[in-house]
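Practice record 12: protein with FE2/S2 (inorganic) cluster.
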Amino acid sequence: MNGENGTRSYTLRIWRQDGPDRPGRFVEYPVSGIDPNMSFLEMLDQLNEELLRHGERAIEFDSDCREGICGTCGVCIDGRPHGPVPNTTTCTLRMREFPDGATITVEPFRAKAFPVVKDLVVDRSAFDRIVQKGGFVSVNVGSAPEANTVLVPKDVAEEAMDSAACIGCGACVAACPNASAALFVGAKIRHLRLMPHGQPERRRRVLSMVAQMDEEGFGNCSNHGECEAACPKSISIENIATMRREYWLALLGLL
Ligand code: SF4
Ligand code: FES
């Protein structure tokens, strides 16, 4: 480490774009005094303070929870959605993962259905519109029942929870060569498919969510598996198989 108190220096190549219809380009920024325990977003905060001190426009990026929960913060780091560390969101990524002196390339998620708003910010409202088509339960299930009266086997509840862990970040779309949203949609469908209160609307749910996914301009899944590798929540591609099975059962009138 070459800085004071073990701090590090980097060259950042960051995508700058003034608006959705403006051309974008990479701009290089040297940064120094970076504590290895800083998060990636804290490092960007430090750069932004420096830019503002010099009267320049800050780099736009999204974040909210900064704890890997909300799914807003995703960017591509050195070509990988959320960066080089598996099962880690951009906000929970630490600068110690990058060697001192490294050049780091940062750009927005690239997908037709996720248009760039500004710099690193993309519009992921296509996901919201898919969920609005069926990623919910509209029957009245009353208030929360006493846990021991709900007859859901533990392994099934855990499987449902594994799917429910999807935070809607969009890394699966950014990683897929077809920009497919199949992992995200599959996770939403499998989560409710496994639970008793998800049964009455199974048919409508899968047909309308898949139709909306196609309408939003996401590509088709061709089993590359890049989505699963990029997912910070370890959502399995088995969720895509479940979605396909549900879809065909619905088309055949078997749901
Ligand atoms: S499936 Fe994984 S990568 Fe895709 S939106 Fe959900 S959490 Fe993000
Ligand atoms: S800011 Fe919420 S998941 Fe990263």
